[in-house]
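Working notes for the structural subgroup meeting. M.R. asked for a predicted model of this chain before we commit to crystallization trials. I am recording the input and output together here so anyone reviewing the notebook later can reproduce the run.

Input as submitted:
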Amino acid sequence: MKYAFAGGVFALVLAGTGMAAPTAAADAKPVKPKAVDFAGTVALSNCSGSVVRTPQSQAGDPALVLSNGHCLETGFPTAGEVIVNRPSTRTFKLLNGAANQVATLKASKISYATMTDTDISLYQLTSTYGQIEKKYGIKALELESKHPVQGRPITVVSGYWKKTYACDIDGFVYRMKEGEWTWKDSVRYTSACQTIGGTSGSPVIDRTTGKVTAVNNTGNEDGERCTLNNPCEVDENGKVTVRKGINYAQETYLIVPCVGPKSVIDLKRPGCVLPKP
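Returned structure, recorded in token form:
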């Protein structure tokens, strides 16, 4: 887990489903990369995150903050555990484009969190999207509603460190194992993204679309096999591959169908395949 912790740094992993991975070659024509800054990102006490919205979100909806499941203030969820609608008063430092803190946002609850199949947390805030934009001039980052695309240029934006990492999507991992957890269809970065502890939960921005395509969360630090801070890749035939120094993220398009009116996470909505309690 790319998680900052007093006295040390830990690192971990997330995912989606086993869909066929699109590639950049499928794009009709080259698109000029979009500029990426820190606007809408947040710093947690131990991780990074971002204020996110779906394409259907309205100004009056309570805002959501996206981070990793392993970044929860209550500790790591166990394998198989899914958390929904748990009260929380956690705070988040909201950054502008220049990485300056412009506000402290407060949660009302943990809407959803898990480290099963994926590694995500979604906090509901006491502020709406419209209130944040009007008061601080910050728009929420939009979640991509489609599967990430292999070969796309991406930027990992860490609010915790106020630092960015630029590389490409190298490919996708059928299954990722780290300690007791297993994730599906993880995003593998090219080697240029050398993310560190504290970057967990950072939004991964597709520079072609400008949208959040994944959430940063782990990397193999020591070359170990499937241990904490050393995730391994497992293919459809069970073959295990270890890539020391390579980092990963978890897809976020799966979140979109699960978010209903007023930012309610409804796991029974059509198309929602996130793990259920």
